[in-house]
Each structure stands twice: as C-alpha cells, then as structure tokens.
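step=predict obj=Oxidoreductase n=239
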Amino acid sequence: MKEITAKVNTVELINKDVYQINLQVDDLSFSAGQYLMVVLPTGEQVPYSIGSAPHELPQVILYILVSDVASLANKVVEYIKSNAEITIKAPGGDCHSHNPVLDSNPEHILLIAGGTGFSQIKSVYSDLVEKNFQGNVSFYWGLRSAEDVFAQEWLEEAHKYSPFTLDVIVNEESDQWHGRSGWLYEAILNDHPDLSNCVALISGSVNMVYGTLDQLESKGLNKDRCFSDVFAYAPHPGK
C-alpha cells in the first residue's frame, strides 16, 4: 500500500448514522472490492472499503457508520470534516473483482452485504456493470430496519440501468418498508435453493459473514468459492 494525499470534496450524513465521504484521489489505482486506510494524525490507520468503482476515479466514495460519538469512526469523520486534504494508504485487500474464479463462468455470482458492507459489494457490482459482464449476478443487501437504508439514489439508478438483480432485505417489518423482509440468508436461499454452482462475495461484520456462510454452505455453496476480507483476519467462530 502506498501513501497518497486525498482532497476532501464533501462529507454528508445520508441517513441517521452513515456518512458519505467524497474524495478526489489523483494517484490511485485499485481493483473493485479493495479498501483504503485513513491515516489519522495519531498514526492510527483505519480501513474502509472503497464504495466507488475504478472507472469513477479520481472520485472515491467511502461510507462510514458512526453509531457512537466516542467511537473511532466518529473520530475519523470529524478529522475528515476539518481538513481540506487527508492522507490515505491504498489499495489493500484480496477480496476483489480481479479473481480468477469470477472468470471461470460460474452459474451465478452472489454479492452479499450486511450494513456498510454495502460499500465493498457496491464497488464490485458497479465494476461488473461497467465491464458489461455477461454472467448472472445477484446483489443482496441486508439491514436491520427501513431507516438503516442509504444510497437511495444509487439504488434507484442501479435498478433502472443494470442487467443484474438487486434486493434490499430488512429484518424488521414496518409501515415504512414495502420491500423484502426477513433474514438475508433466507432471501438468498428462497431465490437460489441449490448453490453448488455459485460463487459468493460476502462483506459485513464477522458474525454476519460467517453466519451467512454457514447457512449457504448447507445448501451447496463451496467454501473455496466464497470470498470475504473477514477470512484474512478473523477465524470462524466455533470452528
């Protein structure tokens, strides 16, 4: 990873606790699905998936969840807000679109995100659209409630103009939500009961990634055809 100066264009709160950060980075190349590190003045380096695709450079988008004002995420957002330029390190991560398995003509590619794991999966999805990928691709995004949904404009555009399927699933039903509800893995298995010829990329918390993997493995998904950054730093709980 190399150290790069990024210009801060905008910092916007796009729902109750998710910020969209728009940067301009002139000296960057990356594969869709990779991440960057925000370097704080303290020397701390905080990883965030790049939420935009390579063809959108030099513009780079980050989505940062701030659930607590005392959190490191809030410290990062406040630092970015107060500076015209920041230092980043990039790119990092092995879970990305330049994956030989994606070139092996799998029957179906499942792109699965929980919460702000959306960022990484959105980048891969947009990259496959831009490259006119001819295979079957399904993007599943799971969230707790309707008020947790963000990037509405992008979702609307993706539904209109991309050749792949995109489903948002919330755990909690409400009068404000008219889409799919329930557990993320249930929606996937309802649409794809046999996963033996599928490839999956999963992005989210450790528990979300491994919990989803366990459910999908039971329906034929091969662990060797499933990819996540989580695998690089967290062991499978209970295994």
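step=describe
The two ends are 31 Å apart (CA to CA).
step=end
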